[in-house]
Amino acid sequence: MTTWLAAALLTGLAVAGVVLYNRLIADRNQARQGYADIDVQLKRRADLVPQLVEAVKGYAGYEKALLTTVTELRGSALAAQGGATRFALEKQLGERLQQLVLLQEAYPQLKADANFRDLSAKLVEVEDHLQYARRFYNGAVKQYVTRLQSFPDLVVARLFRFEPLPFFETDDREAVKVAL
């Protein structure tokens, strides 16, 4: 009788461990999917940068420092591997892109340029998609990290060395507005 009870208890613990492990894997994979969605939007934004820089160059020749910074940040962000490092670079790039688009206020002829207007509209669209992807990712990371810190999940998480993922934080700012 004691043998059966011990076997049932061990089986119950093993099943619970498997369920908790699988739940942690599912949460981690959901966060990774969210990161992949962000990555797609960041690549779309990075593809717009050279075109925006070229469109602005002809009108805002003396804004060379901003154009150089945007180009360098784009390259650094594309080369960054780590989540937290890349997120910091992408945050800086987003801020500089907002400055780049705001140049239209100083250069009315730039504001009238159809190519610039089209690129600016695409940038706004990408920023909107990026915002939604960031929300999904941060929600998935929150759920995953909560499980890593909650009992009994934390026992399985520590046993199998699950690591927390970084949040993608930005300053609270509105999307770039394009006045046509």
What do you see in this structure?
78% of the residues lie in helices and 0% in strands. With 180 residues, it is mostly helical. The longest helix is centred in the first third of the chain and has 56 residues, at 2-57. The protein is rod-shaped, with a radius of gyration of 23 Å. It starts with a helix and ends in a 21-residue tail after the last helix. The model has no long low-confidence stretch (mean pLDDT 85).
**Spans with pLDDT under 50 lasting ≥5 residues?**
none
Number of helices: 6
Shape: rod-shaped
By CATH, the topology is de novo design (two linked rop proteins)
Summed over residues and divided by their number, the pLDDT gives a mean of: 85
Characterize the main sheet: none
DSSP summary, beta strand count: 0
Instruction: Give me the CATH architecture, please.
Output: Up-down Bundle
CATH homologous superfamily grouping: LemA-like domain
Helix/strand-derived category reads: mainly alpha
- The proportion of residues forming helix, as a percent range, comes to over 70%
Radius of gyration computed on alpha carbons: 23 Å
Compute the number of structural domains: 1
CATH class: Mainly Alpha
Report the sheet-strand fraction. Answer: under 5%
The N- to C-terminal Cα distance equals 81 Å
What is the chain-wise order of helices and strands? HHHHHH
Keyphrases for this structure?
180 residues; 0% strand; 6 helices; de novo design (two linked rop proteins); 78% helix
Question: Summarize this, please?
Answer:
The mean pLDDT is 85.
Topology readout:
Layout: H1 2-57, H2 64-79, H3 83-102, H4 108-112, H5 114-149, H6 153-159
